């Protein structure tokens, strides 16, 4: 009798074990809450406080408008390489380490990233940094420029030639970053698109008459009053290699035409970038979360997450000229 009872108990425990394992398996695969995504509800917009799509139907990326896990899963199989240019000339090399260190934590994590550091001081580039799998850094020597405006003017030309010489064979996308910046939060494949630009953190709520566009007709960057969409900051822009090539080539030509006419646009290459993006609409816009300014501080309620921001610097100390 006792033996029969023991048999029953063992069978029960074994059956229970099988059921338990099966439930566990189902839970960890198709039924897992991890792989269950929140349904997008057409009648329940995720952000109602900000514009999330432009009049030409390009998305504006804000926190809450995308699911990072869905995006990461969607991009995983493409095995993309993102070229990333950074200019660190003269005293600006001091910003490199913090920028790269933060990029390793937050920028295009899980994708192949090829950094191109343009500098006149290759020995100042931190080479002892450990980079993630699939991530590499190449130093490109450039001449020393005398004025910070000149660095800004030459940047388009140097990116254009780098794309032609080697980047076009090695990368699918390219992002061009200012060096005096830090990543604080995710900037991932949600930022990829054919032509991508970020909205300036100081001008997103003002009428376009107040945008600091170039207003002199003599400059190739001239944008008339009552024209233009947004004011973009040149601290981060990018896109498919071919599209960014066209952008840098056009801006470079316009910068050179201005130079021979003896004009310098009010915000150098940023003015020309704004002209280009007025004429050639970006296919994706990054909200100011992607190009914040530490000088603006925290507290803007529409900014749920600062991802990338300009560090506060002593301009007089790092610039070679006023
Ligand atoms: C500043 C920024 C400059 C330029 C300018 C345009 O805040 O530091 O790089 O973008 O705005 O007005
Ligand atoms: Mn800067």
Automatic annotation (TrEMBL):
Residues reported in the UniProt entry to bind Mn(2+): 178, 180
Name of this protein: Globoside alpha-1,3-N-acetylgalactosaminyltransferase 1-like
GO biological process, alphabetically ordered: carbohydrate metabolic process
Database matches in Gene3D superfamilies: Spore Coat Polysaccharide Biosynthesis Protein SpsA, Chain A (3.90.550.10)
Family named by the database record: Belongs to the glycosyltransferase 6 family.
Gene behind this protein: GBGT1
Keyword Transmembrane (UniProt): yes
Binding of UDP-N-acetyl-alpha-D-galactosamine, residues: 87-89, 92, 178-180
Pfam families to which the protein is assigned, alphabetical: Glyco_transf_6
Recorded topology in the membrane: Single-pass type II membrane protein
Any single Gene Ontology cellular-component annotation: Golgi apparatus
């Amino acid at each position: 009798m006792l033996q029969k009872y023991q048999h029953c108990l063992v069978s029960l425990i074994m059956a229970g074990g099988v059921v338990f394992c099966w439930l566990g398996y189902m839970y960890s695969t198709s039924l897992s809450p991890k792989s269950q995504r929140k349904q997008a509800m057409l009648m329940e917009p995720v952000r109602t406080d900000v514009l999330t799509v432009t009049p030409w139907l390009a998305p504006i990326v804000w926190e809450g408008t995308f699911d990072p896990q869905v995006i990461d899963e969607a991009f995983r199989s493409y095995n993309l390489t993102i070229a990333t240019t950074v200019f660190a000339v003269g005293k600006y090399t001091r910003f490199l380490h913090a920028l790269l260190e933060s990029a390793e934590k937050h920028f295009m994590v899980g994708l192949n990233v090829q950094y191109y550091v343009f500098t006149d001081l290759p020995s100042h580039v931190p080479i002892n940094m450990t980079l993630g799998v699939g991530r590499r850094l190449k130093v490109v020597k450039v001449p020393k420029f005398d004025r910070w405006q000149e660095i800004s003017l030459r940047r388009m030309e140097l990116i254009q030639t780098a794309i032609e010489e080697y980047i076009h064979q090695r990368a699918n996308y390219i992002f061009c970053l200012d060096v005096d910046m830090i990543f604080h939060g995710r900037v991932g494949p949600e930022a990829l698109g054919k032509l991508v630009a970020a909205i300036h953190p100081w001008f997103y709520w003002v009428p376009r008459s107040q945008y600091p566009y170039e207003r002199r007709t003599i400059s190739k960057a001239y944008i008339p009053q009552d024209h233009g969409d947004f004011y973009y900051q040149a601290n981060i822009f990018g896109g498919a290699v071919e599209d960014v090539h066209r952008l840098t080539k056009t801006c470079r030509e316009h910068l050179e035409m201005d130079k021979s006419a003896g004009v310098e646009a009010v915000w150098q290459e940023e003015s020309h970038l704004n002209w280009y993006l007025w004429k050639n609409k970006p296919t994706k816009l990054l909200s100011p979360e992607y190009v914040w300014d530490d000088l603006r501080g925290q507290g803007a309620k529409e900014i749920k997450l600062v991802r990338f921001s300009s560090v506060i610097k002593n301009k007089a100390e790092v610039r070679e000229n006023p």
